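Possible regression after last week's pipeline update?

I re-ran a chain I had predicted before the update to compare outputs. Posting the input and the new output here so someone can diff against the archived version. Not blocking, just want to make sure nothing changed silently.
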Amino acid sequence: MTTLVVVATPGTGAVYSIATGLSRGARPSIVAAFGCTLGGVPHMVAAITGLAAILNASAVAFQTIKWVGVAYLLFLAWQTPRDTSAVQVQEDTAPIASWRIIHTAVLINLLNPKLTIFFFAFLPQFVPAGEINGTWHMVWLSLVFMAVTFVVFAAYGIFATAMRNQVITRPKVMAWLRRTFAATCVLFAGRLAVESR
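New output (post-update):
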């Protein structure tokens, strides 16, 4: 239940899945959800191998990842209002390659040090101390978390797709949505910038 609450709370991955559903449709939004889910794999590996402990102990490592994440979110905020091609509904609009959607989605979650800390500090609490198969237990919990992430983000994207015709054919609404997504990225960047640990 806690995982569901954490995942369902809108973050950069959810916003990206929604934006993709609105601008490109159901299939690309599911691809975006899949990419956001893949972005959790490095965090899982870091938590299981102990890299998260290094990140937590090293101020330099944490600050480096944090500021790279801030820079990427600000880049997305700058790019979103200018990406008018992403909101066209003509049949001849060139579809974006799935690998590009996945690439962006993975980076969104990969450059989020708080996700690593979540995997390091939260999930291990559900692994009994001294358990022989603790590593596999952690892998299982991580996979459950990522599965919930995929289902929730895909649902967000599909819902956005269902609302697509209600908003995408109105240029003023789409311009407002692009500005909202950009502002959201700036907000997340600002929140990440003030994080200490």
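Follow-up from reviewer: compared with the archived run. The first helix runs from residue 2 to 8. Marking as no regression found.
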